[in-house]
């Protein structure tokens, strides 16, 4: 009975620590514009990105009707000018998944005439998970960071308490 209880406590402690580690490292998949919009002419993408933080390992999916739109990845100049002349890559499947593998800014626009000028362009800032001294994170970033860090500390305390309680047996 005693051994079984100790085994249970250890199993719980391991599970708690493992689950927190998973949360901290979890990659996030975003559907561009969702849930209120998609890749379309109505969504305010500046507003959409401002409410989210993107990290290496995350991915974004452009979902749209391929008869109506496409997706072109461009550089900053192309983004600013709404020009896909020097594009990085182009997609037109209607369900294009883009991996955000590295830190830095990524720029996308719709290449159909007039769509980018009407606001159909999006700039994704892929940021480090922990904000460096040069990065000024928006409030949402620090809030999310604190939540994860807080959960990690909580799990550590729980694990320590569980392991500590074993000393009394
Ligand atoms: Cu379009």
Architecture overview:
The chain contains 4 helices and 7 strands, in the order H-E-H-E-E-H-E-E-E-E-H. It is α+β, with helices and mostly antiparallel strands and 169 residues long. The protein folds into 2 domains: 58 residues; 98 residues, Cupredoxins -  blue copper proteins (Immunoglobulin-like, Sandwich). The strands form 2 sheets. A 4-stranded antiparallel sheet has the order 4-3-6-7. Helix 2 links the parallel strand 1 and strand 2. Helix 1 packs antiparallel against helix 4. The radius of gyration is 22 Å and the shape is elongated. About 21% of the residues have low confidence. The protein binds copper (II) ion. The site of copper (II) ion (CU) has 5 residues, from loops.
Helix content: 25-40%
As a percent range, the share of strand residues is 15-25%
Q: Give the mean pLDDT.
A: 78
Topology-level CATH name of the largest domain: Immunoglobulin-like
Number of domains: 2
CATH H-level superfamily title of the largest domain: Cupredoxins -  blue copper proteins
In N-to-C order, the SSE pattern is HEHEEHEEEEH
- Give the biggest sheet: 4 strands, antiparallel
CATH class of the largest domain, please?
Mainly Beta
Q: What gross morphology would you assign? A: elongated
Radius of gyration: 22 Å
